[in-house]
Sequence to fold (352 residues):
Amino acid sequence: MPRFRHILDTMAAYKPGKVVATPDGRSYKLSSNESPYDPLPSVVEAIAEGARQINRYPDPGAVGLTEAIAERFGVPADNIALGAGSVTVAQQLFESIGEPGVEVVYAWRSFEAYPLLADLAGVKSVRVPLAGEDHDLDAMAEAINERTRMVFVCNPNNPTGTSIRRGALEAFLDRVPEHVLVVLDEAYREYVRDEDVPDGLTLYRDRPNVCVLRTFSKAYGLAGLRVGYLVAHEPVATAIRKTIIPFAVNHLAQVAAVASLKAEDELLERVEHVVKERTRVREALIAQGWTVPPTEANFVWLRLGERTLDFAAACAVEGVAVRPFAGEGARVSIGTPEANDAFLTAAAAFRG
Ligand SMILES: Cc1ncc(COP(=O)(O)O)c(C=O)c1O
Fold:
């Protein structure tokens, strides 16, 4: 019998979002916080053109994409590190700090990849329970010690959708020692409408230990191509770039991401529709009698406790796949109006 690392025995594999369907074929995937829109024609065209070069390895430095991101966000190109999805960049972060005895602090519940990546990198997870549905930043600051090398702050938080405002986040960052890297995971940044929720890129500039994780998977609609990036001060970005598997960001992902930045206005218009639907869905749920925390992301969160799996099953009857966390709650992505209506029908029926 081949032998594996002991940690694997304790690890549950990452569970991707499910797909379900009604007998007459209705199927709405609201389980992975994806964009519900088809890719833009201009992006499909760039991918088709890029397909002509796939006999060659991709540009390992992804120079074109790096420069496009640098220009778009007004950051130096050497502050950018790319990966095959932001989850891979997160893995690179864990690999860069991972050593026996090292700890990472993050809120829990938050993005379910954090504990997996910590375990894989041999880093001890220090999970700080949410206060209600929000980050408990005081408790997180108190959890930092001399073994802490990194803190993940997911803003808005997956799966609760709640977000941290500028004053609270700045006060927290002021308490974090300089040798601890703070990663602001902003996978859902483009959906934020609360002006008090800071753009991490305004916070990292004066703080050498703060960096920002972003993705093309959500608002930019490229979940299937896998591309995300970190914006960090040069020593951090350089360390992270060292951990990338050569050629990890493939050529089609690179050209599609460049094309998406060019078509950003169109994409952000779509985000606006999702934000409007988010308001409609949340208000309808509240009118049905649900408690729904304010959300700045492209999903809503229902704390269902022991009823969570029953709720997911009730949604499946309407063809709606949600993301249940057994015993805790369900996260439901905002989709097309039709998908959202199917979800609201299921939610209303569940309340009876
Ligand atoms: C908070 C958060 N960070 C990172 C990711 C990873 O996204 P990707 O690897 O597609 O960029 C996700 C995906 O759901 C997420 O919710």
Remarks:
- The two ends are 52 Å apart (CA to CA).
